[in-house]
Amino acid sequence: MQISILGSGYVGLVSGACLAEIGHSVVCTDKDESKIRVLNEGGLPIYEPYLKEIVARNVEARRLSFTADLGEAVRHGDVVFICVGTPPLQDGDADLSAIDGAARLIAREARSSKLVVEKSTVPMQTGQKLTRALAIYGRNSKNSFSVASNPEFLREGTAVLDFLHPDRIVIGVGDESAEKQLREIYQPILQQSVVPCAVHGGVCPAKDVPALLVTSINTAELIKHACNCFLAVKISYANLIADICETMGADVEEVMRAMGLDPRIGPAFLRAGLGFGGFCLPKDIQAFIRLGEKAGVDVALLRDAELINKRRIDHFLARATQWLWTLKDKRIGLLGLAFKPNTDDIRFAPAIELIGRLLQEHAEIRVYDPQAMARTQEVFPTIQYCADPYDVADGSEALVIVTEWSSFKELDWARIRGLMQRPLLLDGRNLLDRDEMVAMGFEYEGVGKPSVEVSPLTGQIVRTSSA
Ligand code: UGA
Question: Which of 167, 230, 295, 416 has the most CB atoms lying inside 10 A of its own CB?
Fold first, then answer.
């Protein structure tokens, strides 16, 4: 199938590369010409595991190409996927101007009939507006446009895996031919017949074949928002329980483990910590709240989940201040900047809020992240960017785990202890084993679990918060 991808960000690039990987002929474009230049020079504008290899292989095989010529890209595809950004407006609504721009572009540049597929996350009823826009702007052409919704469930950091081995594929369609085309596009994934797999090589772990759900366009749009908001609610629930654990004395990890063993609840997305960030959950919950309000539905549940998340950094700073007395002039090291591991994305990352607040308090900040330093440097040029975690620890009075990169677990923690001015660990993601760290001589504060304070004079434990 000939496929066009409009928008070569995280969603567009991963989708385009993976659609080429499963055999389609794909042309990707973006209005940001610098992105296309980087791609045509063999680089990637983002970090995403496995993506570089897939892009290189499919460019080489001539199944994948990138062009800054938007019209050429539109004309290539029988099916055009819209993967443009839908960032939040001031009032929380999704900004759909890029979707509207894509509709006008397609209507203007198409020289044949096309199936236009929304892949960007959009509020319900956007498909209806898209259909209308294509009809208005394409009214003088002989081409017809059919619209479908095909929400993505890719997680940054595991996006290639998620694309090639999804749990489900949702297609919202208004006519049979759209369904037929989308079934054909996803056939290799629905049959799990992509060999060799870019993630697993020869043999993929046994997994059920993905479910295909064919719905109306409205329903497909709603499914995406409903999923992301439910994940957000789950995380905020874990954080609410964590706060209770801290004040009343219990361990949130044990509570969540027990909860997750109940198949009606499930273990995923119950990790308490500094809260959810990234360019999906925070903006989607806002947009969904707005949608609910417009529909006259009580969305208090979503508002509270959002509020709990917004307060995570306040709460964390209050705890940090209890340990450090004041933050002014304190040398504080942060490990991790990305909103989650295995990505270089810092959009709405808890680290960004945390750094901003620490700067207001006039703390001295040293940071390290395996992938997200360059992007953070654009936002905060004056803080200290370190060569490695040991450099961050050097002379620090507290070390904060902000992102749970697995490589942080493997650090030489005895060496870190020796480098720190005060061996205080503030583990914002419950990444480290508290007992191991305490045995090594650290003071330790996790999220929603008993903290351990050590006497600077004797090295003995002087206080354990109740458990
Ligand atoms: C999310 C969804 O998980 C994807 O299914 C969806 O396709 C994507 O948004 C999207 O709409 O494009 P993503 O934003 O990549 O994916 O990240 P998540 O893995 O959902 O994590 C979001 C945030 O929640 C991160 O900051 C993470 O650290 C935090 N989180 C996650 C927790 O604090 N606790 C948890 O238990 C899980």
Answer: 416
